[in-house]
Amino acid sequence: MAEEKNPFKIAQMQLDEAAKFLKLEPKLHKLLREPARIFKANLNVKMDSGKTKTFPAFRVQYNDARGPCKGGIRFHWEETVDTVKALAAWMTWKCAVVGIPYGGGKGGVVCNPKEMSDSELEKLSRAYIRAFWKHLGPDQDVPAPDVYTSGKEMAWMLDEYEKLVGHQAPAMITGKLLALGGSLGRDTATGMGTVICIREAAKHLKLDLNKATAAVQGAGNVGGWTAKLLQQKFGTKIIAISDSKCAIYSEKGIDVEKALAHKEKNGVLHNFPGTKCITNEQLLELKTDILVPAALENQITHENAPKLACRIIAEAANGPATKEADNIINKRKDIFVIPDFLCNAGGVTVSYLEWVQNRTGYYWKLNEVNDKLDEVMTKAFWDVTNFAEKHKIPNRVAAYALAVQKVAEAMRLRGLA
């Protein structure tokens, strides 16, 4: 049988495994396998050329039994409904596993933002809100930035939403710039959460991070901050980091800050002094203590899973391993996996803190935000790790079981199952 790479099918198979472990009622299991709501629209945007172009757009609300839906909006040329459904499912479990009162949602637009001007991106952002605004709001569904979107797009979306509802509503969207009610610490949050999980995993495995090595696939916001924080806070030697063009490698270690500055200046990591270029595939198979897949889905497959030579996989990306790869890694027993929806939950945790600050009108200092993030992530890590050890199950199954249990309980109490 061909390896399953459809992200939503993978999300469903992972849920099925947890449901079997939990002995979930069939009716509830069936409800949890599919999104509660899927909205679609075609966004018509007048381009700078004067021509009108149509962009397919989606918003998926997976489950809101525990609170308003929460999830980013992606602008990507290969966006699909199935990817958005999978990400909305993972957001549901992510919010539950770290104990924040949200359900899961996700949005996407099929477009190539690299080929669009700021004017075109603004029109597209506003068109997205006009298409879905009745389904969004602080108590309904709270978007955020995701792939190829940022605080800039969130500002346009917030402004368009407020025009439509006729009042200020900063809590309707997170990941905003500070001037519009954003939270301190939001830009580093996903990387910071990943590093907190790595720190706790290192304690669990008795690994000295000051003497450890790490390879990071991805040099965007998440991969860049993870690499930088590991190096700056713990002295971990970063031996490789990559972008979409190539990976750079140095056995002696890479100065991450300088490497990212090189990428900022030249557009690529390639030719950073003191490093050699290797492929993203070679990066995954490097002998290293910590491997951080922080790029796209399905990077670890049944072909490269047997060749991994790390002690910890910190899944900063969503769905970086196929189900077949996961099965191989689980049988190996020599790799400690920090599953994606636990590992990368720092972003949504600080988005939650931003939402709370917006709603109260009271804003915390950076150290207060980081302390709250650390408390949430540390507790969630040990909840999952202790549950996995107690029941002798893989960490991913443990994370799913804990998350699904919370969502299922909320649904039972509401009389939905």
Entry keywords:
Rossmann fold; 417 residues; alpha/beta; globular; 5-stranded mixed sheet
Give the topology, please.
Elements: H1 7-22, H2 26-32, E1 37-46, E2 52-63, E3 69-76, H3 81-98, E4 103-110, H4 118-132, E5 141-145, H5 151-165, H6 189-205, E6 213-217, H7 221-234, E7 237-242, E8 247-249, H8 256-266, E9 276-278, H9 280-284, E10 290-293, E11 312-314, H10 323-332, E12 336-338, H11 340-343, H12 346-360, H13 366-391, H14 395-413
Parallel strand pairs: 3-4, 3-5, 6-7, 6-10, 10-11, 11-12
Antiparallel strand pairs: 1-2, 2-4, 7-8, 8-9
Helix pairs in contact: 1-3, 1-14, 3-14, 4-5, 6-7, 6-12, 6-13, 12-13, 13-14
Query: Quick one: CATH class of the largest domain?
Result: Alpha Beta
Largest sheet: 7 strands, mixed
Q: Would you tell me which CATH topology of the largest domain applies?
A: Rossmann fold
Helix content: 40-55%
Query: For this structure, what is the CATH homologous superfamily of the largest domain?
Result: NAD(P)-binding Rossmann-like Domain
Rg, alpha carbons: 21 Å
- Strand percentage lies at 15-25%
Number of strands: 12
Average pLDDT over all residues: 96
What count of structural domains? 2
Q: Structural class of the helices, strands and pairings?
A: alpha/beta
Estimate the global geometry from the Cα principal axes: globular
Could you state the order of secondary-structure elements as H and E? Answer: HHEEEHEHEHHEHEEHEHEEHEHHHH
Strand order of the largest sheet: 9-8-7-6-10-11-12
Q: Please name the CATH architecture of the largest domain.
A: 3-Layer(aba) Sandwich
Separation of the first and last Cα atoms: 34 Å
Stretches with pLDDT under 50, minimum 5 residues: none
